[in-house]
TrEMBL record:
Protein name listed in UniProt: Short-chain dehydrogenase/reductase
InterPro entries associated with the record: NAD(P)-bd_dom_sf, SDR_fam, SDR_member_12
Pfam family, any one: adh_short
Domain of life: Eukaryota
Amino acid sequence: MLQLQFEFQIRFSITIPTLTMFLLKTWRQSAFGVYGYLNFTKPAFLEHSKNFKPEEMETQIPGKNCLVTGANSGIGYATAEGLAQRGATVYLVCRNKERGEAALSQIQTKTGNQNVHLEICDLSSVTDIRSLASRFSKKNVPLHVLVNFQSYCYIAEII
Ligand SMILES: NC(=O)c1ccc[n+]([C@@H]2O[C@H](COP(=O)([O-])OP(=O)(O)OC[C@H]3O[C@@H](n4cnc5c(N)ncnc54)[C@H](OP(=O)(O)O)[C@@H]3O)[C@@H](O)[C@H]2O)c1
């Protein structure tokens, strides 16, 4: 009697470092996904907003030094104005002098806060960022808040 026998054999050869990297990457991606789902989706927003206390938005923060990039328009401008409204010392980081000065004067007039300053810096230039960091450190004041709307993460590393 003719007997046919097929045998399949699949062999995986994987080194310990490769397996470790694979597990680490899988873990990081899963953790990132879960964190994102729990914090940055609409249901997460609705859940978190239950703890939102509007009066906390009115907290005054005089003496706090805040640096806001992309501060002459959009959400950068709104953030800078909000911080100035709360009495903080605000440094507007803008690349264009005229637009920066217009935002500075508008914020000072609207909030009555004169502790608003303009720093000219093109955030696409590492040289400019280094120069800004150097100017800021010469002021010898602590930086309490860095709001990085328009920037490479590099600015956070330097300042
Ligand atoms: N608006 C939103 O709902 C929203 C939501 C999520 C994320 N974002 C992000 O938040 C950032 C700002 O958004 P936006 O809507 O406020 O934008 P926007 O109104 O266009 O404001 C961008 C600001 O960044 C400045 N800027 C751009 N390139 C710069 C550079 N190389 N150096 C210095 N300043 C520079 C611009 O200055 P100039 O006037 O000189 O161009 C402007 O003041 C963007 O990265 C955007 O992707 C926005």
